[in-house]
Design brief:
Layout: E1 5-8, H1 14-24, E2 30-33, H2 35-41, H3 44-51, E3 56-62, H4 66-78, E4 83-87, H5 92-109, E5 115-119, H6 127-132, H7 139-152, E6 157-159, H8 165-172, E7 177-180, H9 199-204, E8 209-212, H10 214-217, H11 222-238
Parallel strand pairs: 1-2, 1-8, 2-3, 3-4, 4-5, 5-6, 6-7, 7-8
Helix pairs in contact: 1-3, 4-5, 7-8
Bound molecules: cytidine-5'-monophosphate.
């Protein structure tokens, strides 16, 4: 079960991130390096996780023109990260360019291509937020449209909310990965997330990976918060 947990290292310094990695390596499948840590440290954070034997999901959510996205995927892949993502809203040509760049880079370095994910609608956005952007479609429909684009472009899966997993699996197939952030145990604060689910609920819906940040990082005892989450996940699967 722990292989399916992705811990977000949303921390401002390499020292704090390394403290968490030292404490929790072996307890999670991936460490996620996002914008905050990468802006603070650059590739040093990726090297640090690798030094401790961890796997890296580089969550920089590229959203740019195809040529720029392809270059960023090549550089990310060259660092040896095993998971990478970009916004589906960057469009079909950018998505296809990312797939091609990941394959080229992998064969040039003689290693497997990183798992490539398309970000659908951020889990911090609600129906009202979409309406404010002049997107009239319900959130679920917008996510399904973006997921179909991501699937057609040949990526490995999407980042979406737990409530959207079933629809995506139905239309894109069981093997199409769903990575779910906005995961909140009943005992944790929601914060800025809007489309949330508990770890157990997300698993029951068929999520392949769960992303957790603050429910673990903000806890006074990170190790026991993680153990509690894992126990809830195991209970849900056994039920
Ligand atoms: O602290 P929390 O559990 O909300 O962290 C969620 C993590 O997942 C953050 O690093 C955030 O950037 C990321 N994420 C997200 N929603 C998405 C994509 C990524 O919350 N749609």
């Amino acid at each position: 079960m722990r292989e399916r947990l992705i811990l977000a290292l949303d921390l401002p310094t390499l020292r704090e991130a390394e403290e968490v990695v030292r404490e929790l390596r072996g307890e999670v499948g991936f460490f996620k390096i996002g914008l905050e840590l990468f802006c603070a440290t650059g590739p040093a954070a990726v090297e640090m996780v690798h030094r401790h034997g961890g796997r890296v999901f580089l969550d920089l959510k590229f959203h740019d023109i195809p040529n720029t996205v392809a270059g960023a995927v090549r550089r990310g892949g060259a660092m040896g990260v095993e998971m990478l993502n970009l916004h589906a809203a960057a469009g079909t040509r950018a998505l296809s360019a990312a797939v091609e760049a990941a394959r080229e880079m992998a064969s040039a370095h003689g290693r497997p291509a990183p798992v490539l994910l398309g970000v659908t609608v951020l889990t911090s956005l609600s129906a009202e937020d979409l309406a404010g952007q002049n997107i009239a479609a319900p959130v679920e429909q917008q996510v399904a449209t973006l997921a179909a684009m991501v699937h057609a472009a040949g990526l490995d899966g999407v980042v979406c909310a737990g409530s959207e997993v079933r629809t995506i699996k139905r239309t894109c197939g069981k093997g199409f990965l769903t990575v779910v952030p906005g995961v909140r145990p009943a005992w944790a604060a929601t914060g800025d997330q809007r489309r949330t689910m508990t770890p157990a609920e997300a698993l029951v819906c068929g999520a392949d990976y769960l992303v957790l940040g603050r429910p673990v990082l903000a806890s006074a005892d990170r190790r026991s918060a993680l153990a509690r989450i894992l126990a809830e996940m195991e209970e849900a699967i056994d039920a």
